[in-house]
Write a structure and sequence with these properties.
The chain is α+β, with helices and mostly antiparallel strands and 482 residues long. It is built from 15 helices and 17 strands. Strands 13-10-12-11-15-16-14-17 form an eight-stranded antiparallel beta sheet. Strands 4, 5, 6, 7, 8 and 9 form a six-stranded antiparallel beta sheet that branches. A three-stranded parallel beta sheet has the order 1-3-2, with helices on both faces. Strand 11 and strand 12 form a beta hairpin. The protein is globular. The N terminus is likely disordered. Bound molecules: flavin-adenine dinucleotide (FAD).
Length: 482
């Protein structure tokens, strides 16, 4: 590691500067606070790693990496950046796809080593976690008390800071909403270097701006997550459908009856049949739809007839039982395989879009027509209630929304350009129907008009939050380069 202290020139001050004058310009006390030596790693390996995310679609321009290990170091680093004109991009595992965690000519603020976990608070059913803690570490700690965070995303190796800056969808978001809807409080260091404890009751504007906020206004130092009691086993039913109408009907009916603890929709291109078109015979896919539903239990497994009553699948492919700890990691093998092959290193134009349920019903056949076969089998659907979402989390109007995802594990280079163009068409089609980007996916360059479209009536509040909490625009990324 190289050691560096001050570098870079002061930036022009812009935006609303109504900030607490004790924090800017830095007074003597703050300069003393900043006396901890900021270490910037400028080694080629560190810079290369910090310029690359899972998407592999955009290259970042990192100048170095600062890895913080304590909240105090985080405060000092951000204050130092304010006083020197450095810009910072917080990151966890850089699993986002469109440059959200990549610097555009500044420093990567690596949060992974700040990863302590508080004890499980049994009385309040919460756990306090530092930002770099992974969902795996958190769930291991809570399972010792037969508890889990209300909801977990499928990839347990993401950091809690990264996932709460995104959203956090998983197999039980139809019950609890995404992870951002299950946070009791946060410790945030704002872009101006102020450490603030916030919650829905206290400093709510900051709480709302940071959850799902991609590190735009502040850096999450700690989060207190809501926990729930879990049962030891999960029974899983894997259902197959030939008609998307039946598949969607059953998902709605399961939500209404609150029967299952877990639910995830899949769809994939089945047998390719040669069909006549004006320009010759072309293969056409037979689309198939899957539904995985799960119920936790202790002792005797839940009754199949009870769970499947009124549902209309073409067939029940399997009924499996698993330990809950095993179940929450159900995608582990898929991710291990992606890493073993070169799939992890390839480009991932992942489309993640939040849609109104009626739009999914209406638009699905057209989307399937357009989806390129090279996009593979990673198409997913998860329903979630829109109540209790943070104020700046943009979703379509209505009580329910659907996270619609096209997640190719890898795309052959030979068909990459045409696949990307087809995916881009799909993305635009979804946005034209009121879809909102899940902000850690791939959404191409976003100009001001794009952000206005995304945030809609929340746009002014989003701009005001940036001006209030990060007036010197210390926090930035490739995704916010406009
Ligand atoms: C294989 C795979 C599986 C996935 N599965 C799911 C899933 O099941 N559900 C789901 O919802 N998503 C999923 N995702 C997407 C994932 O949620 C996001 O990419 C998530 O943000 C990644 O966490 P991370 O630690 O890698 O964060 P990064 O990608 O490093 O960062 C994401 C964003 O958060 C900001 N950030 C990071 N840390 C902080 C912090 N402490 N404070 C403020 N801002 C911060 C970054 O600047 C960036 O804008 C998956 C991604 C992959 C690659």
């Amino acid at each position: 590691m190289n050691e560096t202290t001050e570098r870079g020139e002061k930036r022009e001050q812009d935006g609303d500067n109504s900030i607490d004058s004790t924090f800017w310009p830095p007074n003597k006390a703050l300069r003393q606070d900043c006396s901890f030596k900021i270490k910037i790693d400028r080694s080629p390996n560190a810079v290369a790693e910090a310029s690359r995310d899972f998407g592999r679609l955009i290259s970042g321009r990192a100048e170095g990496v600062i890895a913080v290990t304590t909240p105090d170091e985080l405060v000092a680093t951000i204050r130092h950046a304010n006083s020197t004109g450095l810009s910072l991009t917080p990151c966890g595992t850089r699993a986002s796809c469109g440059g959200q965690s990549l610097p555009n000519g500044g420093l990567s603020l690596d949060m992974r080593n700040m990863n302590a976990l508080g004890p499980v608070d049994l009385q309040n059913a919460t756990i306090e976690c530092e930002s770099g803690a992974t969902l795996r570490a958190i769930s291991e700690a809570t399972l010792r008390h037969n508890m889990l965070p209300n909801i977990l995303s499928f990839n347990l190796d993401l950091t809690i800071g990264g996932i709460l800056s995104a959203g956090g969808f998983g197999a039980n978001c139809h019950r609890f909403g995404p992870m951002v809807a299950n946070v009791k409080s946060l410790d945030v260091v704002t872009g101006e270097g102020r450490r603030v404890h916030c919650s829905p009751e206290r400093e709510a504007a900051l709480f709302d701006a940071v959850l799902g906020g991609l590190g735009h206004c502040g850096v999450i130092a700690r989060a207190t997550l809501a926990l729930r009691k879990v049962r030891s086993k999960v029974r899983l039913w894997s259902l197959l459908y030939h008609r998307h109408e039946d598949w969607l009907d059953d998902q709605e009916s399961l939500i209404r009856s609150s029967r299952c603890d877990y639910m995830q929709g899949f769809f994939w291109a089945g047998p390719q049949l040669l069909r006549s078109t004006p320009t010759g015979f072309y293969p056409k896919a037979q689309w198939l739809y899957g539904l995985s539903i799960g119920s936790e239990y202790d002792g005797e497994a839940p009754d199949d007839d009870w769970m499947l009553a009124d549902l209309k699948p073409s067939g029940v492919l399997a009924v499996d039982d698993a330990d809950t700890a095993q179940f929450i990691d159900l995608y582990r093998d898929r991710f291990v395989q992606m890493r073993r092959t070169d799939a992890w290193q390839r480009r991932h134009p992942w489309i993640d879009c939040l849609l109104a349920p009626e739009v999914v019903r209406e638009i699905l056949p057209q989307v399937l027509e357009k989806l390129p076969r090279a996009a593979g089998d990673g198409h997913r659907l998860a329903w979630f209630p829109t109540k209790h979402l943070p104020g700046l989390f943009s979703v379509p109007a209505g009580d329910w929304a659907v996270a619609f995802a096209v997640l190719p594990t890898s795309i052959e280079e030979s068909v990459y350009e045409e696949t990307l163009a087809a995916l881009d068409q799909v993305r635009r089609m979804l946005w034209d129907r009121g879809g909102k980007a899940y902000l850690v996916g791939w959404f191409g360059p976003m100009d001001d008009a794009g952000w206005r479209r995304h945030y809609g009536e929340r746009y002014d509040a989003w701009i005001a939050a940036k001006q209030k909490y990060d007036p010197r625009r210390v926090l930035h990324s490739m995704a916010f380069s406009n």
